[in-house]
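re: ur question from yesterday

yeah so i grabbed the chain u mentioned. its 489 aa long if i counted rite. heres the sequnce exactly as i have it in my notes:
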Amino acid sequence: MLKNIVFMDKPEEDELKERLKKAREKLFGLQMQIKDHKVPVLVLMEGWGTAGKGSLIGQIIQNIDPRFFKVATMDQPTSEELRKPFLCRYFTKIPEAGKYTFLDSGWMDEVTRKCLHDKMDKKTYEQRIGSIRRFERQLTDNGYLVMKFFCHISEKEQKKRIEGLKKDVDTRWRVSENDMWQNKHYKKCEEVFGQYMEDTNTPSAPWYIVDCKSRRWAELQVLDILIQGIEVAMQNRSLAVPLLQNVFPLRKMPKLAEISLDKDMEEQEYKDELERLQEHLGELHNRLYRKQVPVIIAYEGWDAAGKGGNIKRITGALDPRGYEVHPIASPEPHEKARHYLWRFWTRLPKTGHIAIFDRSWYGRVMVERLEGFCSENDWKRAYNEMNEFEKELHDWGAVIIKFWVQIDKDTQLARFNDRQNTPGKQWKITEEDWRNREKWDAYEDAVNEMIQKTSTAYAPWYILESVDKKYARIKALKIVIEELEKALK
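ran it thru and got these structure tokens back, copy pasting raw so excuse formatting
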């Protein structure tokens, strides 16, 4: 994409000045429309060292109210960030609806730099490209405007800028080792950058190559493209997004009505097994930390099915420094204003740690679906998005365990009444629980569809028969141990 690029002619100075004035006013006027239309705008600024990425961002944001944007400089990942999935530090930076985020370099720089220095093989590169394409598509499918700019200068221009900056003691610091390395290996960088942009150039998130030889001309190019993108995004805001066919291998799963709930366990057997399994799980936790294996356990199930007690028996075996339980309730306003998976990306464990979710991202296709908190297109699209999310976690090396805690309606009613009539348990029962119970059949249909469409080979669902809570707890412990042992091999 870079070798054969032909730029438009730069306008005459008077025309440039007039067009810049109008474009700046236009962008300033659009910010309230973006807020009203709830369009989140993610601007990625990539390019050659000394091409002026930071300065260009600085020029653009002068035309936006400071309350409506954030700027982040994405340096190479820290040791802490390297203990999370590749995309995690970028997903956590996405803006709220109606606001901007500007990234000074990002996932392109991280990937191409490793390629240029032979720190990434072809297989890993292809995996990264797939992750990036899915990441950008998920954002645009969920209403984000993703604008990707590459600031381009010639080899000669870059060398001239490097030499000019190095001559002045006050600007010498602005020239990095990477800038000089790029100029020395310009042709190689040009080839790698161009190939990356070809591999990630999509209709929903295309690349825009900016002629950065002139600072004011570069600003006008970015402003014109950004304004056009915003206007199109606002027009497309209400359009339905095409649904994608599932490409991940699925496990055949029974429907909830086909699951026998007569499983039980004697008290003494339960105590003996609980002690034995918890001791074994504690040993495995130490090995997980030593081998830096991340673990994600997600619990879904009927109200009063016993999720909390089940989680308690898992965590009772673990070192408290190495796990965290995330109780997932209705999203907070700042969470609701972002991609629905954002609040889960921000809660992922570090390598060697365990994250347990008491309810999870699957609320999208259950409560949000049935209560009308998202559109039909949103929840139908979510099956594939959640499979993609879990594939990212699996490729990162995470063990993913998903439990559905199953009971019948009579058992739920008995437990509801017990909670209602026991002062120490009344906090566990709400009016919402009773309302949800009235929609049991609709929820069961939704759960069946969810399990059928998201029980993948790398992240299958496990059903815990929980009419007898003791049986469900022991079964969960055995499944966790089995999955961890497989990973540790």
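noticed a couple things. The CA atoms of residues 155 and 186 lie 6 Å apart. also The longest strand covers residues 145-152.
anyway ttyl
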